[in-house]
Fold this protein.
Amino acid sequence: MSKEQQQPASTPAPIIGGGMTLGVIGAGVMGQTLIRGLLSSGLIPREQIWAGDKNGTACDAVSQSLGIFVSSEYQDRIPTADLILICVKPNDAAAVMAALRNAGLRRETLLISILAGVSTDRLESLLGTENPVIRAMPNTPAVVGEGMTAVCRGRFAAKADLLRAQHIFEAVGKCLAIDEIHFNAITALSASGPAYHFLIMEALADAGVRVGLPRQLALTLVAQTALGAARMVLTSGRHPAALRDDVTTPAGCTIGGLLMLEDGRIRSVLARAVEEATRISAHLGAGPARPPEQVSGQRGSH
Ligand SMILES: NC(=O)c1ccc[n+]([C@@H]2O[C@H](COP(=O)([O-])OP(=O)(O)OC[C@H]3O[C@@H](n4cnc5c(N)ncnc54)[C@H](OP(=O)(O)O)[C@@H]3O)[C@@H](O)[C@H]2O)c1
């Protein structure tokens, strides 16, 4: 286990230097999520954040909804940036790195990439400079301040750069420094994780409707129960199996429901889902947009 592993950031460092800016390249789902989270955390003033996106028509709408500069003509902002968050799809990494280099990126500017499957080694070689690079893997609950992010540093990044990245992601949830070797697994577990939980909640809400509950009530019951169960796991320090035993009365209804879940092989289904997502994540940063073999209908980037 490395010294940096699983360490929450302890010393908050300033996010960006005075008079400098924080740029976000790629104002899609994650770019907007992180900007919203950062703005609502109050960590950085609105005037110091800008975003660049290839999609010119979308820029105006995003600019209006976020209240910041968003444009496809963002190149002249790059030299003003002290920190740049790269939030494009993995296959756009090479184009973005070339654009940054050609637009006068300062050698000191910290780059934080959230690209699934793209290693710090690859980012550094695409960039071809000695800028500090941090790889981060956040998730969408960052928009409500409950994100889960893992960070690691590249060859030219110092511990202070890692702390800066942690400070940013702690503004939108939890953030841990983890060895890069685990990043594909983390992508599969916590970056893709919200989608698994949404599916499970949807299915449970449907189940509630099946047994006679109004849909909205069923959804509220399910979501609040998920939130409460998650908080118990995080705060009690007890194993989930022990918490489960506490609510499992002999011959009661809970053990009956659990038996049905085990009959449906819920554990192995979940394990296979994470295994498959880990395998796909490992291919994402490899190059041109081609889904790996055995996978059909892949649409997302993680
Ligand atoms: N979504 C998640 O939950 C999640 C979680 C963790 C990490 N990630 C990672 O976050 C990254 C972004 O995912 P996303 O879901 O936010 O994707 P997205 O919604 O497609 O956003 C990416 C945006 O970047 C734009 N773009 C592409 N090339 C560009 C360039 N050269 N310069 C400026 N903008 C450019 C895209 O424009 P066009 O649409 O016109 O190409 C698009 O608007 C991915 O690498 C993914 O692996 C996502």
Q: What stands out?
A: The pocket of NAP is lined by residues 25-31, 52-55, 87-90, 92, 95-96, 99, 114-116, 137-140, 191, 301-302 (CB under 6 Å). The chain has two domains: 21-182, 193-264. The radius of gyration is 21 Å.
